[in-house]
Amino acid sequence: MILVVFLIAYLVRRRLDSLNAISGDELWRRWFRQGTVVKAGRESSIGAGLFLIVVPALLAALGIYALGLYGWRLAAYPLEILVLVLLMGSPGWRQVLEPYAEAWREGDMQAAWHFIQERLPANERGAAASPEIMHLALSKALMLAVFQRFFLIAFWYVVGGIGLAIFVRGLVALSEQWPQAGARPWYTKACEWFSWVPVRILSITFGIAGDLSGWLRESRAAMAGVTKKASEVLMISANGSLTGYALDPARFSRIHQDEWASFGGRSLSAVRDLLSRSMLVWICALALLVIAGVV
């Protein structure tokens, strides 16, 4: 049933994303309001944040275990679907990318920047000195958001169940939304620990779902870098897996000068298609694991 549960939740979540409905980030933001007030000198403490994600994760895991213990495991599947739908998803991206691509097509880079600036990490919002840098920053933010809100959750749900999926998604939310900025670096580091294996599996998936020969040329830099962040692995792997210089705007502008106006939209479409095909590969792999009795 794990395949059916995830597949239903994924399809529902994709539909909600297209409608820009039910943001899991907003739910986490409201839950974290309890951490807005701390004692002086305790701004970097991580205990309160961890407590707020361990509690729902533990309650969900115990609830599922109790239902199974009393022979009501079937009743837990709708609950898991609901929780996965709330954990996954990146609503709002479509409403940002479409006007961004249109502004790029019209050559209005200032308007394009205004459309996407809220989607970029705070430390990169002032670094977009050129259209090329701006576009690469957006592509990296898009891939990282989709990875953390779909692939990361899928991996840990299959490995450890719904409780672990809630915990890992909570870490992502803490790294982005915890009211005390001093504690966020630790949460970000914890996210990198939990992302290390799944992001490298996704890197391999990019090669399967994209240009395998191009991925093989770049794979050593992505896979061998033990300390590379998840966003760096994603960018290196996607760049090798995509054709037409979709993530190399500088080279594209030199080779296809007449098509530069369409680069922004074409590049984003290529990235989104690669991510969608990669999820299809993961679903097929999960089906094989279920058939083999591994999960």
Automatic annotation (TrEMBL):
Keyword set includes Lipid biosynthesis: no
GO molecular function annotation: kinase activity
Source species of the chain: Marinobacter xiaoshiensis
The entry's keywords: Kinase, Membrane, Transferase, Transmembrane, Transmembrane helix
TM region positions: 45-67, 150-174, 274-294
Superkingdom to which the source organism belongs: Bacteria
Name listed for the protein in its UniProt record: Histidine kinase
